[in-house]
Specification:
Layout: H1 6-9, E1 16-20, E2 24-29, E3 32-43, E4 46-57, E5 60-70, E6 76-82, E7 87-92
Antiparallel strand pairs: 1-2, 2-3, 3-4, 4-5, 5-6, 6-7
C-alpha cells in the first residue's frame, strides 16, 4: 500500500482483499477490516470492481469506498478510501 508499511499491514492477520459471490467481499489491513458491497463494470476499457465498505478502523465503526482492477503479472491494482480519514493505493498479489 502507498500509505502504510508492511509491518502495519499484517497487524491483525495477513493483509488481503477477497471478492466473493456476485456482490460480496472482505478485506483486512492493519487495524482496518470491512465487508464489501461490490459492483463489477469497466474503467477505461478494462474490467473493474467498484465497492463501498463498512467495518472497523481500530475497533471504531468505519466505512468507505474503493476500486480494484487487474494489473500486470496477475496482480490487482486499486485504491481504498476510509470516509473522513486516509486513503491509499494498493497492489495485491494473488495467493
Amino acid at each position: 500500500m502507498d500509505l502504510w508499511d508492511t509491518d502495519y499491514l499484517d497487524l491483525l492477520e495477513p493483509a488481503h482483499i477477497t471478492f466473493a459471490d456476485e456482490h460480496d467481499g472482505r478485506f483486512v489491513f492493519g487495524a482496518v477490516q470491512g465487508s464489501l458491497d461490490v459492483r463489477y463494470g469497466s474503467r477505461d476499457g478494462s474490467a473493474c470492481a467498484e465497492f463501498s465498505w463498512e467495518g472497523l478502523n481500530d475497533a471504531d465503526p468505519a466505512c468507505g469506498r474503493g476500486w480494484a482492477m487487474p494489473g500486470t503479472a496477475g496482480r490487482l491494482v486499486g485504491h481504498i478510501f476510509i470516509h473522513n480519514s486516509d486513503d491509499s493505493g494498493f497492489v495485491a498479489e494473488p495467493d
